[in-house]
Fold:
Amino acid sequence: MSKRKSKDKSLPIGECIFQVQAHLRLRLLQLAHPGKRCGVESQHKHLVELLKRTVIHGESNSVLIIGPRGSGKSMLLQDALREIQAVKELKENALAVHLNGLLQTSDKIALKEITRQLHLENVVGDRVFGSFAENLSFLLDALKTGDRTSSCPVLFILDEFDLFAHHKNQTLLYNLFDIAQSAQTPITVIGLTCRLDVMELLEKRVKSRFSHRQIHLLNSFSFSEYQAMFKELLSLSSGFPDVSFAEQWNASIQSLCENKTVEDILQKQFNASKDLRSLHMLLLLALCRVCVSHPNLNAADFVEAYRLRCVDSKANILHGLSVLEMCLIIAMKHLQDTYQGEPFNFQMVHNEFQKFVQRKAHSVYNFEKPVVLKAFEHLHQLELIKPMEGLSVRTQKEYRLMKLLLDNSQILEALQKYPNCPTDVRQWAMSSLS
Amino acid sequence: MTTLEQFPYLEEKLQDLEKRILCRDPQLSTLLAVFGEPSHLSFPSIFIYGHTGTGKTYILKTVLSTLELPYAIVNCVECFTSRLIFEQILNQLYDHCPSPDNEYSSYERCDTFNEFIRLYKKAISSEGFENQTVYIVLDKAELLREMEANLLPAFLRLQELTQSNVTVIFLSEIVWESFRPNTGCLEPITIYFTDYSKVELQKILSSDYPEEYSPEFYASYINILLGVFYTVCRDIKELRHLAALNFPKFCEPVIKGEAKEVDSHKLWRNIEPHLKRAMQTIYLREISSSQWERIQQEDREAFQLKGLSAHAHVELPYYSKFLLIAGYLASYNPARTDKRFFLKHHGKIKKTDFLKKHEKTSNHLLGPKPFPLDRLLAILYSIVDSRVAPTANIFSQISSLVTLQLLTLVGHDDQLDSPKYKCTVSLDFIRAVARTVNFDIVRYLYDFL
Structure:
């Protein structure tokens, strides 16, 4: 009987894979952490405390959350907001305005967006305001309840805070901080930024109104914690529809954690970058390879995903060049070697190429100069070479000074992998090394 | 991982894809794996790079339309401002096409990214795309770097900004490293579309054989073509163009009955000179295809290919020619050497005597140097046999040479007393000019002593 019951619950394998993909993709992409906060408990507590004081006691505050990209700033904030909203009476009481420096590129747009998010378009109507401050305070006044004693607390969340500092006169920041400081309406301004020097961007009058509260997120976890996170991120929770599949999946994740290859990859990734988002991307790429015929993650998936993440893209581009373009690159390399990194122009490269064609080459055809120039321009277009000065009409394109953006080792490595490379070209490339 | 059957789409659609996309199986399966199922949350951004003609745009278009996924594809060359990009995306999502009926207006006006986010969300809910991934493809994405600074980072995190299931795909020839903004951004995953190998090129090019001929015959033609052009050109578009252009010539002996389709050696001997000639103008497109065909029809033996460079020869007034020659000499000879070239009794000065260490590299490698007007005139007086008076006539000819871009003015235009010039013509050009006035310019050039 019990056997039949468990059989009923198990889903076909295709369905299981579908669910796994759906669950894990959501987890890895939606900033939803898998339950445990890793090393940010104190920051979390601090932030929640601050938010509560605004929402419950009507205190105004301002705070900056600073940390490198992918360190979990938004995750921390969302987590805190969720916790605040879990308390029922607060949910109806507070309003949140989300602004992003990438979207609200000027204060005018920002103000419009604030109006929209506070649902005050009707209230504002066609009213004309004298100044920005007047407009903003009108908006906040509109939120006051009938007796004008208590006001609705508003949370202003400014993502990419540093970009707001580039707005003209920093009007928005000035006004927000001014309101926060002068206890008109209870508001909390939360800025998120990845710039540690963000304070230097603020004008003096803005800076003096800011509370100088900063929360730093610095990815201060160790490798063993990193590994634990890896396991946590991939394991299926108990809520998964098919229990037996989940058990099997979790067992395979467990064995992956003990796998030496996977550990090596994680170590390499950890050494290269500690940010969690790059870990998420790595896991997602591995996860993409899971399908019906391949229902479990294995070490090979991670090897492949890691390879995909860290290929040398310039070497890839070099691989696809024609022999003529490759010859030009080699000529540039020789020029750089002889003149110690001095810039070069097309004439010099062409001269060097001509020397090669006349003396050593058997397989390379002597191309017309316009054809070679076209190949040179193609390299410029691919940004493998870069002009030294800006685009000026006055110099002819043959004489424009250029710089090679490739390393010697990169060129030689690319030549090794280059398909159907003529031997004389390869020898020419090696020749200057001696 | 090589079969496509594992992907959760209808089988006939996958087979259709396999039929339409040649030689790109690894890329196709990576792409489909990354896409996942339509209802799954997908990557916020994918960056696809590879050389031109490796099938980036084609595959994306084919995959998205065959699998009937909601998508918008925007070419950043065509839509060169942010507003055009936004409106184009919205138009495609609404399936709206600017036409005479709606006075070529787009579905909605959208100026800023802020507006776009709002309108995009509206479009998604009104078109019922909430439960599937929407793909936005930005072709030639390198141009985004030259638009507003917020555009690229905002597109990279469009998924977060719109809180919806959207994947932005960037297509470019340039590597991701040169896109990254100063303060960083959300990193996309990168997929490389490798170039076609020779075998794959052969396969693809052979697949479009004309109906009158057998596939084997066309394949042998492509084989010859690739043998000649593969070293200089791996761009499939250019190769296709060349293949189409030279094929009538290749078949000529067969049509005339001089050779059979299997006489490969004979056919090779017939086509080889033509291909060699085409090699000299590869990529240049100096003449149109119809002109090229006409030239081939006439088939003159002693035909010299006339490209733009051969036509680059202007008829100038007598003094202008000398002015240009004087300008060329002044640009490429060091001023110290003028005495040696233009003074009658300069004594014997060898080249090595005034060869300084830093001047070992020739001026023809470094390019023209600027020179003052006085020097130009002084050289002019000494190279013209008859006496020239410094009249307004001469000066106006200088300014017309500047207008013709044969000389350029260095520095500001407002410098009236001693303007400086530079000569911008090539050696071949100036030799042609000098020949018309019987002046042996090479004898006067320091580099060729």
Q: What stands out?
A: Confidence is low (pLDDT under 50) at residues 1-8 of chain A. The CA atoms of residues 157 and 190 of chain A lie 5 Å apart. The longest strand of chain A covers residues 187-193. The two ends of chain A are 81 Å apart (CA to CA).
